[in-house]
Amino acid sequence: MKKILATFMVIFACSLFLVGCTNERSIDQSISEITTIYFKGEDENGQAQASISVGERDEPYNIDGVHHKNVDFSLINIDFGQKISDEQLSGKIIVNSVESELTLYFNPLSNSYMGDLGYKLNDNDSVIIVIGQNEIVFENISKDFAVNYSKALEIGKENLKSEIVKMTKDGDFKGECYLKILSSNSNMKELFWAFTLVGQDGESYNVVISVSDENIVYKQ
Length: 220
Fold this sequence. Notes:
Radius of gyration: 21 Å
Oligomer: single chain
Strand order of the largest sheet: 1-2-3-6-5-4-7-8
Largest sheet: 8 strands, antiparallel, barrel
């Protein structure tokens, strides 16, 4: 009897473990955008402030609670500190001494110019962007984050645990997740992780986490 009971307990424990892992994998497989590396740059005068967010995102990119498949990205964002009338700017990007043409497009929502390289930059890449007279040198500042992307993802999921449960049906997460870097000001000095859940019924939940510590600065 004791042997049968022990066997049953082992089977029960294993089944709980498998259910937990399946649910966890379902959430992780529904990440429609995640930034893993973050470069910051500025020109010699400190007027042009720039960033490059590196990671993976959903294709097609629709914030609708439905995850498809992820593709690599390196999203460039440059604020020249003044209004420029051009809808797009052409220049060049130099990665590890290899030069390529670059086109950036104006985003009226952020009043900055943006463009995607379509691939992932690496941790130790040397990156320089030249637009007209502006030469912007970048460095990977995410290396120095006290809270890296995997820790931020863990904190976000923990703080939205009940919401994740509500959006999970029959062991399947009915939504998608986003983990991005946010800046509180134009000079990009104060940075945060933003973890977001979006459900298929239109509901959304957010947790904003400081990159300097594990402090939750906003939750809704």
